[in-house]
Every structure is written in C-alpha cells, then in structure tokens.
Design a protein that fits this description.
The protein is mainly α. 71% of the residues lie in helices and 2% in strands. Strands 1-2 form a two-stranded antiparallel sheet.
Length: 190
Amino acid sequence: MPDKKKKSVSVIRSSAIIKNPVLFEAIGIAPVVAMAVSLKSAIILSFVSLVELLLIECLACLLMKKLKGSVRKMIYAILGLLIIPLFMLFRYLAPNETANAGIFLPLLAVNSLIALHCERFAVKHNFKATALDAVSAGFSYAAVILIVGVVREILGSGTVYSVKLNIPVKLPGLLMPFGGFLLLGFMAAA
C-alpha cells in the first residue's frame, strides 16, 4: 500500500508542481493572459479547463490507447466540443464575463494542454492514475489562473469580485495582456 501512495504523490507532484502546465511548460498561456483579468473570469476559465481536462483525459485513457497518435489528436479536438454546454451555462449565468472572454473561452475546446496530457499520460497509464493526473494538472492550472485573475483585478481595477477596495494606486496596465505575462513570469520565477 505505501508504494501506491508514493506513486499517487509522485503523480500529483509531477502534474501540479514540477510540470505545472502554465508556469513550467508554458501551455495554455493565451487564455490566462487574455481572460484572467478578474476573479469572475478566472473562475469561469478554471472550471471549464478542469472539467475539460478531466473528461477528455479519462476518455482518452479508456478508449484511445490503441489508436494512432495522429488520429488521437484529432479526436481530442473533437471531444473538446463536449464542453459547449458549459459555454452555454456560463453565457446564461455570467453573460458579461462570458462576453469579455471573447474567442478564448471557445478556443479552450482545442487547448494544447489537453492533447499534451492525453498523449504524455492518459494513453500510457491506467484510469486511476489518469484521473489523478487530470485532477492535479487541472487544479494547478486553476490555481495559477485564480491567482493571476485576483492579482490583476486588485491591482488593475481596485476591486475583488467587483467589490470596490479603497486602494490608493491602481495599475490599469495589469489588465492588458502584458500584465498577465508579467505576473506569469514572476510566478514561474518564484
């Protein structure tokens, strides 16, 4: 039993910390830089990314191990369309934030993070390890998105979840894409 626990910890450490999708591998940066400008948009992006990664990685583990790599990559993009109901839900629940996301929310359907994790892990391991990898990579991606979104909202707008804070200095430049790149750079260095 201790070996299984060590293996699980190793999977989590590798997927979430050592090979953090955004900070280490620079995968999925565009949605983070463009969309994570507030806590609300970061929550939407985090949730959609986590659900998509978990769903597609588990399906890849169960159904696609015997297919050729080039065929699997096309199927990952097609399976990304399964998250369209999530887009519709968020369009209904948070129309302003979904509209602010622009093209980046639908582009998550073909996120390179999905293909990378499916090819690197899902088609080579069992279901339990794959699900653990998907959850740990998804949560680490979500953590980075949420941190970037909150910091950019606080320093750029002087708000948190649209609640005004009485901050004497605002840095609206952080709400632009270069602000996201700066924050990601500092987080990766740390």
